Amino acid sequence: GQNIDQPTEMTATEGAIVQINCTYQTSGFNGLFWYQQHAGEAPTFLSYNVLDGLEEKGRFSSFLSRSKGYSYLLLKELQMKDSASYLCAVIRTYKYIFGTGTRLKVLA
Amino acid sequence: SAVISQKPSRDICQRGTSLTIQCQVDSQVTMMFWYRQQPGQSLTLIATANQGSEATYESGFVIDKFPISRPNLTFSTLTVSNMSPEDSSIYLCSVGTAGVPPYEQYFGPGTRLTVT
Fold it and tell me: Which residues of chain B are under the pLDDT cut of 50?
């Protein structure tokens, strides 16, 4: 079976830092992606982890611990445009299994 | 990255009818996938569209309800058959580079379906 869990909603203030967690239990693992999805739009790629550790891309960083089945997405210097849903997806062979998604609201 | 278009972008359909959604990619791709995203929910994989053979369906999805075609490496269709209000959802196609890490996928803009 597979379970990929994220907090349902989070709220943060403009300029702050927010960490969105993703925990997973899945048979087979080839990597983990983070996607951003604004309302009414398609998901867009943010970051990818296949090995343990931190990957940094500008204001966004993603961390992976395979032994703990845990990842997080870190967003720094939050902007209003970061209000969106954030989806983690575990890759099994070539297929994505998406987490429950986290709706982030950034307040002025 | 690939540019993906879907038609229609949205539709309102009556229960018991069928709708075919088209997905067109601007380049040849190995893997094409169809997802469903119900209101306020995350994405659920329906099936992998295989070129030249039958699609591979995920648990809970069957060919009679969601027939899929993949006539070539740039095009696929998903049909939602005998629709009911529970089929109201956004349907997205995506393309990926299976066999070539990091297996990144690119998503189409989605088709918003409402069944009345």
Answer: none
